[in-house]
Amino acid sequence: MKSICVYCGSNFGARDSYLSAAKRLGEEMSKRQIKLIYGGGNVGLMGAIADSVLGAGGTVIGVIPKALAQKEVAHEGLSDLRIVDSMHERKSLMAELADAFIALPGGLGTLEEFCEIATWAQLGFQDKACGLLNIDGFYDGLLSFLDHATDEQFIRPEHRHIVLTETEADKLIDKLTQFKAPTLSKWTS
Fold first, then answer.
1. DSSP-assigned letters across all residues of 52-79
2. How many CB atoms lie within 10 A of CB 168?
3. pTM of the predicted structure, to 2 decimals
């Protein structure tokens, strides 16, 4: 695995543990020589993980839409900053550049981007691993929903396992490297 796309908040959140987790994930990625692909911001957990990877000597590729870069939230100290025209172009390029995906705590944008890439895996549009770094139970509600949707037969059990979860960065990266995408069609009866 050469690169991981990390989705996370542009704020720090209410708990210090979220910032600590972002820093630990960045350090672990650098230790393993895994490039960070992320949204290109210099604020919140986004800026923290980028700074952590860079501080440990790693490589960071940021992808940010022009509209956000113009609001001065673009991180100017990255290994590579790519400015694109739209959020759709951003998500597509990040997916192309990444070998796997992790969501740290975040809000609507984090959830939307992570759910989209997991949906692409379910549909067979991509076969890369998707993981939630579940810090202090942040994603417990989402995981409960996924289990409920599986119990109610809206998600096949094989597809439920697309979303990996761990509480520690090193363990989650290990799971991502061992992931095998399901080959069962979403529509098989």
1. HHHHTT--EEEEEEHHHHTTT-B-TTSS
2. 15
3. 0.95
